[in-house]
Amino acid sequence: MTFIERTRFWACPNIWIRNQEDGLSNRTSQTPHVKNRRADIYIYAKIRNKGVKQYVYLRGMSEQKVTGFWNKSSLLITKDMWLDLQPGSEIFGGPIETCDILPTIAPGQSEIIEIEKRVSNIYEKDEGDPYPMCVLLHISEKNADYNLREDSAGFVAVMNTPKIAQNNSIWEYTTISEKCDVLLFNPNLNEKKYSIRINAKDKTNKPFKEANVSVDVKSSLMEAWKKGGSLGDNIEIDKNVANRVCLKDSGSIMKNIVLGPRQKGNIALNCNFYAKEAIVNDKRVDIDVTVIDDATGRVLGGETFVIMQDARPSINPNVKTNSNILEVANVYEDVLYEWYDKNGKLVGTGQTFKIPAGASTSDYTVKVQAKSDGAISYSTAQAPMLSSIKNVDAKSRKDAIVVTFENPTVNQSTLRVALSAGNSPVADYTVDGGAETYDIPASNMVSGVYQVTLIENGKVTGTKKFVK
After folding, report:
1. C-alpha closest to that of 246 among 236, 254, 231
2. pLDDT at 4 exceeding the cut of 70
3. DSSP type of residue 129
4. If you write DSSP's letter for every residue of 345-375 in order, what string do you get?
5. Which pLDDT tens digit goes with each residue over 417-434?
6. Amino acid 251: pLDDT
7. pLDDT at 129 over 60
8. Interior/surface letters 168-198, b for 16+ CB within 10 angstroms, e for the rest
9. Do 48 and 1 contact (CB within 8 A), yes or no?
10. Nearest CA among 434, 436, 464 for reference residue 450
11. Using CA atoms, how far apart are residues 155 and 365, in angstroms rounded to an integer?
């Protein structure tokens, strides 16, 4: 009597969790976002009889039984965590119950069993917020058989027996408002080094071509990664979002995460599909987040994020330029706007963006993100060079020409004054950083047409003419 599939041992497809009693017709998991402690969850398992005799359910008893265990969605789950034997007051998981396998299963045949469990019984000792959970099932001939086979590191030996299977998977419809995170916990009483590897189940690397994929790492894990040197492959730290790591390819890996004794932190996966073109068919992407023991190279555990994207129309932003204002048009749904400079730095939000005074000719990119499902699209526009001199007042005062700037000046700024005819010596004036105005001495100026030029960081950023 087995659970059949052995690959990706933390994500057995023959176990699924539902928030309602419909698992016989809907054989996919739901993430149990529990809203109240009186709700029920339903656990289903497809079990196959690989023996030569049938297993009989007779007179209210079966020869084989299934004992269930639950845990907070975690990348590393030891036997003690499944059994709720971890030291300390925090609840990680525990036994659910034992149920009979019924009906009778003939040799070579499979049947689906259902385990109903009141959430309040599972969560009754935990006063924290609800969280996603995972399940371990154990087939044996005993009631409440907690004798889970474990390996030398204290983990349940799921890979070594077909009688035990687990499902660590989080199912998400793409959204920007709700994210599920999963726990990484060092259960040891000594410091350990781990790596986190992110792989798409699709070996073609298609998900990373069709979507922007990243992970949000809690600050405690980020510090643990920095302690180990912030090493990795196919990754890049986000310039604009704290504790976010962008994933460039399947096989992205964060190496040498140094976790202290019983140190923990959470990690969440983001997957935003590109919608420059319409998404014609619903999409499903399975992304595995796997934990590796750096000392041995052994895979210790993981979590599978199943990302669902419904078919949707395209998002085609069109950026229009009006003087120093960039504005997005041709978007017909509720979205968020983010503006980036040519170096990828976030410089503004909103449908319109005012180009900073003194900006040289440069590309600006707007990211448009749908609020409904998180789908994204980009558009780039070239900004014209703008004068950073707002006004030159040559009439109000006899002793000075007052120059007003669009924005406070940067350090190393210079004002250069010359007659437009070009037959007057050039006069340069140093302007302090942060200045909003500057008074050019005018007592010794001869009458004529002048040109004043602002130079910032060695570049001309604005010119204006005035009459003295």
Report:
1. 236
2. no
3. -
4. -EEEESSEEEPPTTPPSEEEEEEEEETTT--
5. 998 877 666 789 999 888
6. 85
7. no
8. bbbbbebebeeebbbbbbbbbeeebbbbbbb
9. yes
10. 464
11. 48
Cα angle vertex 113, ends 110, 118, to 5°?
A: 165
The model scores a pTM over 0.85: no
Residue 35 in tokens:
């809203």
Instruction: Output the six-digit token pair for 217.
Output: 């790492």
Tell me how far apart the alpha carbons of residues 306 and 271 are, in angstroms, rounded to a whole number. 10
User: Span 404-408, mean pLDDT?
Assistant: 83
Question: 329, 117, 222: which is closest to 337 by C-alpha?
Answer: 329
- Both tokens of residue 140? 């044996």
Contacts of 206 by beta carbon, 8 Å cutoff, 6+ apart:
200
Q: 3-class DSSP state for residue 225?
A: helix
Q: What is the mean pLDDT of residues 380-408?
A: 84
DSSP state of 121: H
CA atoms within 13 A on the CB side of 277: 3
> CA distances (Å), 176 to each of 270, 334, 344, 371, in order?
9, 12, 21, 6
CB 405 within 8 A of CB 393: no
Contact 137, 165 (CB under 8 A): yes
In the prediction, which pLDDT does 30 show? 80
DSSP 420: T
Residue 80: both structure tokens together: 């003690």
Separation of alpha carbons 37 and 437, rounded Å: 64
Cβ within 8 Å of residue 198, ≥6 positions away: 213, 215, 247, 250, 251, 252, 253, 269, 287, 288, 289, 290
